[in-house]
Amino acid sequence: MKPNSILGRYLSKQIIFNFFAVLLMVLGVVLLFEMVELLRKASGRDDVSFWFLLEIAVTKMPRTLDMIFPFVMMIAAMTTFWKVSKTNEFVIIRAAGVSIWGFMTPVLATVFVLGALNVALVNPIAARMYELYETLDYRFDTRNPNAVLFSERGLWTREAVNENTFQVMQAKSARQENDGSLFLRDVSILEMNRKSQPERRIEAFAATLKDGYFDLKDLKIYEAGKPTQILNHLEYKTALTVDRIKENFIEPEAISFWDLPGTIRFYEMSGFSAQKHKLRYLSLLVSPFLLCAMVLVAAVFALRPNNRRGGVMYLIVGGISTGFLVYFLSQLIYAFGLNGTIPGVLAVWTPTLIATLISVSVLLHLEDG
Hints:
This protein is of the alpha+beta class. The protein is about 60% helix and about 15% strand. The protein is elongated, with a radius of gyration of 27 Å.
């Protein structure tokens, strides 16, 4: 069956409607429980308003949605298939000569498009909201309304100067100014070669990160075989930006899908491990296929000509249990990928392939039967 046929459009509308209905219901429940927990934590604090807590809860929702998105799609698919089976529409469709794969084609195509739109359009917005959530949550914990993620923690960065030299910078304190620039105090920069042998050290009282360089103030330069240089001012070139530094203090989930490749390249050039960011990027690429796999799992339990077999309880318990099993397996294999035990591509593809192959095998058996 073609996805743009009359029946294909009907099934696509059904899965889209049920998806948004389940999504709104789940997000409403999540928001309610999150607000209750935040109100409990903020009880007795006069410096926190209800609207500030609501802002924290709303900005956290994209992170929660990212975790439950496959379950929402599976429940929406189960609801769609169960309704089609209950009203005997599935029996009529099969009697008209449409195979189960012809029936599934428009549904899978619609789900894949929803998954691709989620990665390309929704993810950048969700990443920005999650970054804002981390800042708000840090302000809530520190009771500092102007705090940013890296304030009062100091700062460590590593950056490649050229092919043979890299530098490690340490600042005892860092804060973001009102104009968006980054101000550092007690800055120490150590330049080393690829054998980790020191070549030059710079000690500065203060530094400000500007476009393409650090503006160092009241500094001393120590270099082997040369006298100590004392300068009032020095422009020290860098590829770092305020956003790039902030990425050291936020989770990969707070970085947009479109920004992840650049972040990965920057970390690798600077000598940092980018494994978490690589797995995050690969998991986003695989997510539309994972959604299709969850739809196939839902079809195993809900797409049956005879709804009397096993009843609704079989549908609910079997589908949810299988969904949790797939989620647990994916998290377990993902942890192996983070530790480098297995390749990243294998870590993100294995759960999707296992769920897809098992579901297709069961559906083939039912089709032949």
